[in-house]
Amino acid sequence: MSLFQLAWKNISGNAFRSWVVAICALIVAAFALFITIVLRGAETSLQLASDRLGADIIVVPTGAEAKVEGALLMGIPAKFWMPSANLEKLAAIPGVENVSPQVYLETLTGASCCSVPSMFMIAYDPLTDFTIRPWLKQELGEGLDLGEVVGGSYISATEGKQNIRIYGYLVTLKGNLEPTGTGLDQSMFFTLDTARDIARISQTQAETVLSIPADQVSAALIKVEPGGDPHRVAIQILQKIPDVTPIESASLFQSSRKQLASLLQTILSMMGLTWALSVVLIGLVFSMAANERRRELGVIRALGATRAYISQSLLAEAGILALCGGAVGIALAVLAVFLFRRLIIVSFGIPFLLPSPGSLVLQISIGLFLACFSVCLAALFPAIKISRQDPAVAMRE
């Protein structure tokens, strides 16, 4: 009888024990994979959002720090204003290479003049912008004209082939940015001229007029000179310009990063406890199984089987159960992540980007390896112990 046949015979001969081991492997693999996908997805999402912002410093009115983070991370529309005169003051600060204003707007909820629900909209200055324009030139070969927009990965046309109605104004969707897993995926970008044109049309076509205060902007993106120190520039901004707060790119989304670190610590503690309990339970199950089969294994030894064959048969049984349970656990974890992605974001309060196929395969491999390692580790001691049992003594018991 081959090693695999013996292991399979033992598995089918004791369904309850096999189910217990397989379920433990399922829990270990599913938990490990789910945690890895979510935490890695959140970390990647934060990094992509920071890269997409493309600025060394973002300057907002004092008190608007949480609002801008909520808008960029979770897509929560935000409105706040500061004098556009701050742009000249920022440009005059030593170490600043470029300053570009942005205006933050939102669509109306449940209004017939807006064909999309409440959505975060960002208007930029094409003359000074250094974040959106490079992508437009690379992907579209040109900038945006009046009435043209680009959207996050979730934005799609709602009025005809390429049009979206905003405040009674039909804009043309020219393209979509790559997904980041953040609120930028459900945001819309257009020029300040388009924003002013929408505001003008809204006076007659919208249920509520879109108001853009004159000589006001929402934020200013700053690019520091090559070799410059963003932190030193941020300190000068605080000292020289009142009622504004500079947020360095390294400090952006800091609260979300702290929340992610705290979540990681909690989950790793739970994972460690779950893994330890599973290993102990599997070890007890295999110890009981080995004791029940002492006479059978003694007969096999008496017929010429080596100690290595006996221990390998138990480890093969553990490996088969681990592979079966782990595979089911991995399938459930992947299914849960893809089906409940939005619930994960809302429950944990963090952005989340689904992994690429290559990254997913790697994470699945790690989860399956952990399940097999855990089960085989738990079965190793009972396997070694029973293989050293004297055949004559085992057959008499």
Notes on the protein architecture:
This protein is of the alpha+beta class and 397 residues long. It folds into two domains: 3-47 and 257-396, no CATH class; 55-248, no CATH class. 57% of the residues lie in helices and 14% in strands. It is built from 13 helices and eleven strands. Strands 6-7-5-8-4-3-10-1-11 form a nine-stranded mixed beta sheet, with helices on both faces. Strands 2-9 form a two-stranded antiparallel ribbon. Strand 6 and strand 7 (169-176) form a beta hairpin. Helix 1 packs across helix 10 (307-339), helix 2 (15-53) runs antiparallel to helix 8 (254-292) and helix 2 (15-53) crosses helix 10 (307-339). It is elongated, with a radius of gyration of 30 Å. The protein starts with a helix and ends with a helix. The model is unreliable at 392-396 (pLDDT under 50).
Summarize the structure.
By secondary structure, the chain is an alpha+beta fold.
Name the helix and strand elements from N-terminus to C-terminus, one letter apiece. Answer: HHEHEHEEHEEEEHEEHEHHHHHH
Counted by DSSP, the helix tally is: 13
Helix percent band: 55-70%
Biggest sheet architecture: 9 strands, mixed
Average of per-residue pLDDT values: 79
Rg computed from alpha carbons, rounded to a whole number of angstroms = 30 Å
Global outline: elongated
How big a fraction of the residues is strand?
Answer: 5-15%
Number of strands: 11
Backbone structural class? alpha+beta
Residue stretches low in confidence (pLDDT < 50, at least 5 long) are 392-396
What order do the strands of the largest sheet run in, or round the barrel if closed? 6-7-5-8-4-3-10-1-11
How many domains make up the 3D coordinates?
2
Alpha-carbon distance between the two ends: 24 Å
